[in-house]
Amino acid sequence: QVQLEQSGAEVKKPGASVKISCKASGYTFTSYDISWVRQATGQGLEWMGWMHPDNDNAGYAQDFQGRITMTRNTSINTAYLELSGLTPEDTAVYYCARTPPFCGGDCYFSPWGQGTRVTVSS
Amino acid sequence: DVQITQAPSSLSASVGDRVTITCRASQNINNYLNWYQQKPGKAPRLLMFGATSLESGVPSRFSGSGSGTDFTLIISSLQPEDFATYYCQQSFSSMITFGQGTRLDI
Protein backbone atom coordinates (compact mmCIF):
# COMPACT_ATOMS: atom_id res chain seq x y z
CA GLN A 1 0.00 0.00 0.00
CA VAL A 2 1.03 3.63 -0.41
CA GLN A 3 3.15 4.75 2.52
CA LEU A 4 5.31 7.68 3.51
CA GLU A 5 7.91 6.99 6.22
CA GLN A 6 9.54 10.00 7.87
CA SER A 7 12.81 10.34 9.76
CA GLY A 8 12.99 10.58 13.53
CA ALA A 9 12.64 13.43 15.98
CA GLU A 10 15.16 16.27 16.00
CA VAL A 11 16.32 18.71 18.65
CA LYS A 12 18.04 21.84 17.37
CA LYS A 13 19.41 25.06 18.77
CA PRO A 14 18.17 28.43 17.56
CA GLY A 15 19.87 29.47 14.33
CA ALA A 16 20.53 25.89 13.24
CA SER A 17 19.09 24.01 10.27
CA VAL A 18 17.12 20.78 10.15
CA LYS A 19 16.71 18.30 7.31
CA ILE A 20 13.82 15.82 7.45
CA SER A 21 13.35 12.88 5.10
CA CYS A 22 10.21 11.26 3.72
CA LYS A 23 10.58 7.85 2.05
CA ALA A 24 7.81 6.83 -0.32
CA SER A 25 6.70 3.29 -1.11
CA GLY A 26 3.84 1.55 -2.87
CA TYR A 27 3.63 3.91 -5.87
CA THR A 28 5.77 5.53 -8.55
CA PHE A 29 7.60 8.25 -6.62
CA THR A 30 8.05 10.56 -9.59
CA SER A 31 4.36 10.51 -10.53
CA TYR A 32 3.07 12.52 -7.57
CA ASP A 33 4.08 15.70 -5.80
CA ILE A 34 5.14 15.76 -2.16
CA SER A 35 3.86 18.53 0.07
CA TRP A 36 4.98 19.50 3.56
CA VAL A 37 2.68 20.69 6.34
CA ARG A 38 3.57 21.52 9.92
CA GLN A 39 1.63 21.68 13.16
CA ALA A 40 2.74 23.39 16.34
CA THR A 41 1.60 21.73 19.56
CA GLY A 42 -2.12 22.27 20.06
CA GLN A 43 -2.35 24.36 16.91
CA GLY A 44 -3.72 23.96 13.40
CA LEU A 45 -2.13 22.89 10.14
CA GLU A 46 0.21 25.14 8.16
CA TRP A 47 1.13 24.34 4.55
CA MET A 48 4.81 24.93 3.79
CA GLY A 49 5.18 24.03 0.13
CA TRP A 50 5.29 21.31 -2.51
CA MET A 51 7.85 19.61 -4.70
CA HIS A 52 7.57 17.60 -7.91
CA PRO A 53 10.05 14.72 -7.67
CA ASP A 54 10.28 14.22 -11.43
CA ASN A 55 11.85 17.58 -12.22
CA ASP A 56 12.74 19.01 -8.79
CA ASN A 57 10.36 21.95 -9.26
CA ALA A 58 9.18 23.38 -5.96
CA GLY A 59 6.84 26.06 -4.64
CA TYR A 60 7.06 27.49 -1.16
CA ALA A 61 4.68 29.34 1.11
CA GLN A 62 5.61 33.00 1.47
CA ASP A 63 6.15 32.68 5.21
CA PHE A 64 9.13 30.38 4.61
CA GLN A 65 10.69 31.97 1.52
CA GLY A 66 14.44 32.27 1.85
CA ARG A 67 14.95 29.60 4.48
CA ILE A 68 13.20 26.51 3.06
CA THR A 69 14.45 23.99 0.53
CA MET A 70 12.69 20.88 -0.74
CA THR A 71 14.76 18.30 -2.59
CA ARG A 72 14.59 14.63 -3.52
CA ASN A 73 16.66 11.56 -4.31
CA THR A 74 14.76 9.54 -6.88
CA SER A 75 17.12 6.56 -6.59
CA ILE A 76 15.82 5.91 -3.06
CA ASN A 77 12.31 7.39 -3.47
CA THR A 78 12.95 9.96 -0.77
CA ALA A 79 11.96 13.61 -0.42
CA TYR A 80 13.63 16.06 1.92
CA LEU A 81 12.64 19.25 3.70
CA GLU A 82 15.38 21.54 4.95
CA LEU A 83 14.56 24.56 7.10
CA SER A 84 17.26 26.98 8.18
CA GLY A 85 17.45 29.85 10.67
CA LEU A 86 15.40 27.92 13.21
CA THR A 87 13.69 29.75 16.06
CA PRO A 88 11.61 28.35 18.93
CA GLU A 89 8.53 29.24 16.86
CA ASP A 90 9.57 26.47 14.42
CA THR A 91 8.97 23.85 17.12
CA ALA A 92 6.31 21.63 15.57
CA VAL A 93 5.49 18.28 14.02
CA TYR A 94 6.36 18.29 10.34
CA TYR A 95 4.39 16.09 7.95
CA CYS A 96 4.98 15.09 4.35
CA ALA A 97 1.98 14.13 2.22
CA ARG A 98 1.44 12.85 -1.30
CA THR A 99 -0.25 15.33 -3.61
CA PRO A 100 -1.67 14.95 -7.14
CA PRO A 101 0.88 16.16 -9.70
CA PHE A 102 0.50 19.64 -11.18
CA CYS A 103 -2.82 19.77 -9.36
CA GLY A 104 -3.49 23.41 -10.23
CA GLY A 105 -6.38 23.74 -7.83
CA ASP A 106 -7.38 20.20 -7.02
CA CYS A 107 -4.57 19.77 -4.51
CA TYR A 108 -5.31 17.42 -1.65
CA PHE A 109 -3.02 15.47 0.65
CA SER A 110 -3.22 11.70 0.94
CA PRO A 111 -1.65 9.78 2.49
CA TRP A 112 0.44 11.55 5.11
CA GLY A 113 3.66 10.50 6.74
CA GLN A 114 3.61 9.79 10.47
CA GLY A 115 5.19 13.14 11.30
CA THR A 116 8.59 14.27 12.57
CA ARG A 117 8.80 16.29 15.76
CA VAL A 118 11.30 19.14 15.63
CA THR A 119 12.12 20.92 18.87
CA VAL A 120 14.07 24.18 18.79
CA SER A 121 15.48 25.14 22.14
CA SER A 122 18.63 26.66 23.57
CA ASP B 1 -4.15 34.65 0.27
CA VAL B 2 -7.54 32.98 0.54
CA GLN B 3 -8.71 33.02 4.15
CA ILE B 4 -10.81 30.14 5.45
CA THR B 5 -13.12 30.57 8.42
CA GLN B 6 -14.21 27.28 9.98
CA ALA B 7 -17.05 26.94 12.47
CA PRO B 8 -17.63 25.97 15.14
CA SER B 9 -14.19 25.75 16.75
CA SER B 10 -15.48 23.04 19.07
CA LEU B 11 -18.59 20.95 19.29
CA SER B 12 -20.00 18.48 21.78
CA ALA B 13 -22.17 15.69 20.43
CA SER B 14 -23.32 12.15 21.15
CA VAL B 15 -23.14 8.85 19.30
CA GLY B 16 -25.89 8.80 16.70
CA ASP B 17 -26.09 12.59 16.33
CA ARG B 18 -25.99 14.36 12.98
CA VAL B 19 -23.17 16.90 12.93
CA THR B 20 -22.48 19.79 10.58
CA ILE B 21 -19.19 21.68 10.25
CA THR B 22 -18.85 24.68 7.96
CA CYS B 23 -16.06 26.48 6.15
CA ARG B 24 -16.35 29.86 4.50
CA ALA B 25 -13.76 31.15 2.04
CA SER B 26 -12.87 34.82 1.67
CA GLN B 27 -13.41 34.55 -2.10
CA ASN B 28 -14.87 32.17 -4.66
CA ILE B 29 -12.79 28.97 -4.64
CA ASN B 30 -15.06 26.94 -6.95
CA ASN B 31 -15.09 23.44 -5.43
CA TYR B 32 -11.41 23.33 -4.42
CA LEU B 33 -12.13 22.46 -0.81
CA ASN B 34 -10.98 19.34 1.00
CA TRP B 35 -11.73 17.91 4.46
CA TYR B 36 -9.46 16.03 6.88
CA GLN B 37 -9.89 14.18 10.16
CA GLN B 38 -7.13 14.17 12.77
CA LYS B 39 -7.01 12.10 15.93
CA PRO B 40 -4.67 12.98 18.82
CA GLY B 41 -1.06 12.09 18.10
CA LYS B 42 -1.85 10.99 14.55
CA ALA B 43 -1.43 12.45 11.09
CA PRO B 44 -4.48 13.92 9.36
CA ARG B 45 -6.54 11.67 7.10
CA LEU B 46 -8.25 12.85 3.92
CA LEU B 47 -12.04 12.47 4.08
CA MET B 48 -13.41 14.50 1.16
CA PHE B 49 -11.85 16.18 -1.87
CA GLY B 50 -13.31 18.51 -4.44
CA ALA B 51 -15.92 19.50 -1.83
CA THR B 52 -18.17 16.50 -2.49
CA SER B 53 -16.04 13.46 -3.41
CA LEU B 54 -15.57 10.81 -0.75
CA GLU B 55 -12.02 9.47 -0.40
CA SER B 56 -11.71 5.72 -0.89
CA GLY B 57 -12.25 3.81 2.35
CA VAL B 58 -14.07 6.63 4.14
CA PRO B 59 -17.48 5.62 5.52
CA SER B 60 -20.53 6.88 3.66
CA ARG B 61 -21.86 8.63 6.79
CA PHE B 62 -19.45 11.43 5.80
CA SER B 63 -20.63 13.78 3.07
CA GLY B 64 -19.67 17.18 1.78
CA SER B 65 -21.47 19.96 0.00
CA GLY B 66 -20.95 23.47 -1.24
CA SER B 67 -19.31 25.51 -3.96
CA GLY B 68 -18.03 29.04 -4.27
CA THR B 69 -17.50 30.35 -0.75
CA ASP B 70 -19.60 28.17 1.57
CA PHE B 71 -18.94 24.52 2.33
CA THR B 72 -20.27 21.91 4.72
CA LEU B 73 -19.07 18.60 6.10
CA ILE B 74 -21.87 16.41 7.46
CA ILE B 75 -21.54 13.31 9.59
CA SER B 76 -24.94 11.70 9.38
CA SER B 77 -24.76 9.47 12.47
CA LEU B 78 -21.78 9.90 14.76
CA GLN B 79 -19.81 6.82 15.68
CA PRO B 80 -17.37 6.57 18.60
CA GLU B 81 -14.39 6.62 16.22
CA ASP B 82 -15.51 9.97 14.73
CA PHE B 83 -14.54 12.00 17.78
CA ALA B 84 -11.55 13.94 16.45
CA THR B 85 -10.55 17.31 15.05
CA TYR B 86 -11.67 18.21 11.53
CA TYR B 87 -9.95 20.62 9.15
CA CYS B 88 -10.93 22.06 5.81
CA GLN B 89 -8.30 23.12 3.26
CA GLN B 90 -8.54 25.22 0.10
CA SER B 91 -6.36 24.73 -2.96
CA PHE B 92 -7.86 27.32 -5.31
CA SER B 93 -4.97 29.63 -4.50
CA SER B 94 -1.39 28.49 -5.05
CA MET B 95 -0.92 29.48 -1.42
CA ILE B 96 -2.79 26.62 0.21
CA THR B 97 -4.55 27.40 3.49
CA PHE B 98 -6.38 25.41 6.15
CA GLY B 99 -9.30 26.26 8.38
CA GLN B 100 -8.60 26.62 12.08
CA GLY B 101 -10.11 23.23 12.91
CA THR B 102 -13.23 21.92 14.67
CA ARG B 103 -12.73 19.77 17.73
CA LEU B 104 -15.56 17.25 18.05
CA ASP B 105 -16.00 15.94 21.60
CA ILE B 106 -18.43 13.67 23.33
Q: How do the helices and strands line up, and which of them pair or pack?
A:
The complex is a heterodimer of chains A (122) and B (106).
Chain A: E1 3-6, E2 10-12, E3 18-25, E4 33-39, E5 46-52, E6 57-60, E7 68-73, E8 78-83, E9 92-99, E10 116-120
Chain B: E1 4-7, E2 10-12, E3 19-25, E4 33-38, E5 45-49, E6 53-54, E7 62-67, E8 70-75, E9 85-90, E10 97-98, E11 102-105
Parallel strand pairs in B: 2-11
Antiparallel strand pairs in B: 1-3, 3-8, 4-5, 4-9, 5-6, 7-8, 9-10, 9-11
What characterizes the major β-sheet of chain B?
7 strands, mixed
Q: How much is the average pLDDT of chain B?
A: 96
In helices, the fraction of residues of chain A equals under 10%
The dominant shape of chain A is: globular
Strand content bin of chain B: over 45%
Oligomeric status: heterodimer
Q: Could you characterize the architecture of this molecule?
A:
The complex is a heterodimer of chains A (122) and B (106). Chain A is an all-beta fold and 122 residues long. Chain A has strands spanning 3-6, 10-12, 18-25, 33-39, 46-52, 57-60, 68-73, 78-83, 92-99, 116-120. In chain A, the strands form two sheets. Chain A has a six-stranded mixed β-sheet, with no helix packed on it. Chain A has a four-stranded antiparallel β-sheet with strand order 1-3-8-7, with no helix packed on it. In chain A, strand 4 and strand 5 (46-52) form a beta hairpin. Chain A is globular and about 40 Å long. Chain B has strands spanning 4-7, 10-12, 19-25, 33-38, 45-49, 53-54, 62-67, 70-75, 85-90, 97-98, 102-105. The mean pLDDT of chain B is 96. Chain B starts with a strand and ends with a strand. By secondary structure, chain B is mainly β. Chain B contains no helices and eleven strands. Chains A and B meet through loops of A and strand 5 and strand 10 of B.
